[in-house]
Amino acid sequence: MAVLGKQKMLNKVNLGHPARTIAYSPEGDMVAIGMKNGEFIILLVASLKIWGKKRDRRSPIQDIRFSPNSRYLAVGSTESAVDFYDLTYGPQLNRINCCRDIPAS
């Protein structure tokens, strides 16, 4: 059983814009951050260095998720669209597919 002690900030990074949503990769080595300006950034957790960043939307990112095997990243925006990226292509973050006109829940 773990006992939680005092919580403290271990590190911080300035991304330049307000963050709206985050998701850790299943392995915990990357964190994806969706921004209010439509950009998303992937950081390496150990160093907080930017692994990749992209802006394919102008509206805020509403949700962001890694696939269970960390190969894909789904990025949902307030434009009722979800963009899909294959992370095996590397930090250039090439979009491989997109779904549009998704109804709000």
TrEMBL record:
SUPFAM superfamilies linked to this entry: WD40 repeat-like (SSF50978)
Short name of one Pfam family: ANAPC4_WD40
Keywords of the record: Repeat, WD repeat
Gene3D superfamilies xref list: YVTN repeat-like/Quinoprotein amine dehydrogenase
Listed GO MF terms: microtubule binding
Organism in which the protein naturally occurs: Dissostichus mawsoni
Keyword Kinase among record annotations: no
Stated name of the protein: Anaphase-promoting complex subunit 4-like WD40 domain-containing protein
InterPro entries named among the record's database cross-references: Apc4-like_WD40_dom, WD40/YVTN_repeat-like_dom_sf, WD40_repeat_dom_sf, WD_repeat_EMAP
Anaphase-promoting complex subunit 4-like WD40 domain location: 23-101
Record bears the keyword Repeat: yes
